[in-house]
Amino acid sequence: MAHDPLNYAGTTVLITGASSGLGAEFASQFAARGADLVLVARREDRLTDLADRLEQNHGVSTTVVTADLGVPDAAASLVETLDERGLHVDSLINNAGFGMGGQFADEEPGRLSGMIDLNVGLLTDLTRLLLPQLVERSRRSGGPGVLLNIASTAAYQPTPGMAAYGATKAYVLSLTEALAYETKTSPLRVLALSPGPTKTEFFDVLGGGTDAAVGSFQTADQVVSLALQELDRKNPRPSIVSGRRNAVVAAIARLAPRRLTLALSGRISQ
After folding, report:
1. Is residue 128 classed exposed, middle or buried when 0-12, 13-18 and 19+ CB atoms within 10 A define those classes?
2. Residue 4, domain member (yes or no)
3. Which residues pair with 200 in a beta bridge?
4. Tens digit of each residue's pLDDT (9 = 90 or more) over 80-134
5. % of residues, the chain, pLDDT over 70
6. Is the dihedral of CA 228, 52, 16, 151 positive or negative?
7. Could you list the residue ranges that cross the membrane (predicted)?
8. Is 165 a catalytic residue?
9. What is the pTM of this model?
10. Could you list the residue range(s) of the whole structural domain that residue 149 is in?
11. Which of 11, 32, 64, 103 shows its CA 20 to 30 Å from the CA of 231?
């Protein structure tokens, strides 16, 4: 059933990891619906190019914040920057993150810690710092406010060969579903989005090409369009999986005995 698309004009959306992939696509689709944007990532040139294009195409206001979100206290520093610039956000898209593949015992410790800090630590800290503002502004304005966290189909079962990455995304899924319940009396829409393999830079960072991909590939446009369609619903679900086949596999993983799920996942990863 189709739902009327929400109009985000007059609201401000903060997107982390906005320089490419899903982050850039979220920026484009929110701008097309009238939202002003705060774009955060390390690559200033890409952010500036994206900001200029969205301002020209959609007439929205964009603010570029260049920051390494993987360093300690990155969330607090980002919120301090927002305060200094007088920026108040209505929506938060926690998109920044990366994956690692291979046997857990062989992972480089510093990179492993960096992934956990970004995928879990930053997302948790930034959500905690901004959630009161998101809830309050959604209540005061009556306009659409969103908290959207990027999980993964890897969140639905143990993932041998990507053990720590899957664990970080299981955390994101669990946290977001709990927050959806805790904020259910407010107008804020809270959603965990779990993409399967997506045509972005993810597998370049992961290493090994697309061999680690499990499930059907989608484009960033398909993934983000599905998320916004879900948010258009009067009562969005707390979590969704992008792609029909991916959703079926995730549902089976949740229902099947844990030992069976682990065995199947381990065979697929070999």
Report:
1. exposed
2. no
3. none
4. 999 999 999 999 999 999 999 999 999 999 999 999 999 999 999 999 999 999 9
5. 86
6. positive
7. none
8. yes
9. 0.89
10. 12-269
11. 64
